[in-house]
Amino acid sequence: MVCQNEPLVQKVCDLYEQISSLESLKPSKDVDMLFTQLVLTCIPPNPIDVDKLCKKTQEMRSNLIRLCGEAEGLLESHFSAILGSYENPLDHLNIFPYYPNYLKLSHLEFNILNQHHTNVPGKVAFVGSGPLPLTSIVLARNHLTTTSFHNYDIDPSANSKALQLITSHPDLSSRMFFHTTDIMKVTSELQEFDVVFLAALVGMDKEEKVKVIDHLAKQMAPGAILMLRSAHGARAFLYPVIDPCDLRGFEVLSVFHPSDEVINSVVIARKYAMPINAIDHQQNGLGSMIVLPNKCCEMLALNPLSHVTMAEELVVEEKHS
């Protein structure tokens, strides 16, 4: 058991106590300072396994992730409102302090997607796009310049702010669409998308996120790509962790854990061509050709680098380009 005598855990616990005592998580000097300290504490590579934390620290981590999610939403809403006041909001995205991180993360995700999905996707869904849908915007402007993006968020005010950002842009206003709905209520519509992105904060703990993943597995088209954001090491104090074995109904293609200021890990998976239970009951030998999720876990445990080499090479290329 890893508990509070570990210096990293003690530091995170101290910051949690300070953050949880704040009157508001809206952007302010104190909020910005504490979350900056938290991020800087969690970014350095660390072998800590959050699954081995003691119960009290596990509870603290769950609460901290929710606080981080709330603060991130308020930060994005704040800057989205500022950007929306400009005549051409997309010309001023660099006022958002984490915009460079989104540029790097979107570039990484695009390169990983290209390795596993050689055709340019016609339609992409982004689940949990929020008031500042930077991933969709960056991908649409810089990488997937003919693709249509359908952004799903449960919060109508988030979609209203997001729509304001792209209304004046002649290209993106014709390719970006916003849907205010709970993704768990979206069914056959998900069949239309070549690629579905799942935001890091959709499902604030593993159980919630796995429910969403299971729903996507039922509704997405066979062969469609699912891209998720997870966390690794100490960064798992900031975001929920998704293990490859949580992706029931999907073949995990790649898992990449960045070591720079990009916080989120990137997971890419492809929906199986038929349901897992159908594969299990095939009598023609097809089942032996498919790596089932539990076997996937065993393989990753034996060789944790088996799915990251390609992504690591992409990052090296990016750094040297």
UniProtKB/TrEMBL annotation:
Chemical reaction(s) catalysed: 3 S-adenosyl-L-methionine = nicotianamine + 3 S-methyl-5'-thioadenosine + 3 H(+)
Listed EC numbers: 2.5.1.43
GO MF annotation list: nicotianamine synthase activity
Keywords associated with the record: S-adenosyl-L-methionine, Transferase
Tagged with keyword S-adenosyl-L-methionine: yes
Enzyme superclass (EC): transferase
Function in brief: Synthesizes nicotianamine, a polyamine which serves as a sensor for the physiological iron status within the plant, and/or might be involved in the transport of iron.
The name this protein goes by in its record: Nicotianamine synthase
Species of provenance: Salix viminalis (Common osier)
